[in-house]
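so ive been stuck on this for like two days lol. basically i have the seq below and the ligand is copper (II) ion, smiles is in there too. i just want the complex predicted, nothing fancy, no docking runs or whatever. if the output looks off dont worry ill sanity check it later, just need somthing to start from for the group meeting slides
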Amino acid sequence: MSMRNVLVIFVTMLLVLPVAIGCNGNQSESDDQAMKTHEASKKETVNQKPKPMTMDRVGQQVTIHMYTQQTMVEIANGVKFPAWTFDGTVPGPVIYLKQGDHVTLTLHNIDPNMPHSVDFHSALVAPNKAFTDVPAGKSKTIHFNADVPGVFMYHCATSPMSLHIAQGMYGAIIVTPKGEAKPTFTIVQSEFYKPNDMKALNSQPNVVAFNGKADQYVNHPLKVKVGEPITVAFVNAGPNEFSAFHVVGTVLRDVQASGNPQNHLYNVQSYTVAPGDGALIHLRFDQPGRYPFVSHDMQQHQKGASGIFIVE
Ligand SMILES: [Cu+2]
């Protein structure tokens, strides 16, 4: 090959490569574009009435409608947060499926200001087709099969994705294996930063919460019975921090990583759940009493990742 041909190939690659990368889905949007989207979203704050998810089942055919919208939520006692949401709540609704379900899901973006999307960690689909942006005021239908059982996260994947997650766009999707019951409790951990501020995402969170509100299960403990086996489906939505799930006064008798029935760890003291991961945790309490459950990352505990089981 001549020197000239080598040069032509090299120059062609320089021209083609950025285009190829730029066409490869949501996450690859340039930082400039991400910041433009972000700035545009700052123009107008809206507080939309929550529109709940609907879910209909005929055998194993499941039809779901979800709504992306902007809604004011309370993330700690007296602390309001202008959230971007699924169905008006943070986290979004828990989606309970059975292994083998065929899901038809329509995402209706009723947010007037910006595009949103949804990425289901449980779905085995091409993300550049299924998880793409739905413009403001539009809807989009996707299909997937719930083949892999487990405790999964779903979230908005629209750029800047870190901001869409930090603003509240996440939830749990739980696929139970055949013949098994739903988990007793579902807990989603997440962090809250200064709202609608990309730079704040590089700093420490202000609030870390279980199911969207700091210390809500300290103020309203979860009740269980002595000796009764219970399961906690735990998801860490992040966006940034690892969780160290721990229950004071017992051990985590059986932990299924990602909630999969093939992944077992027995008698664990604290279990690390990465952002974007989940677990199914089996517990049993031998004596009546108050048993705190926390993220044993003490900073998170202090900021609201804390609750209590009352065992009677
Ligand atoms: Cu979004």
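The two ends are 81 Å apart (CA to CA). The pocket of copper (II) ion is lined by residues 84, 116, 156, 158, 164, 169 (CB under 6 Å).
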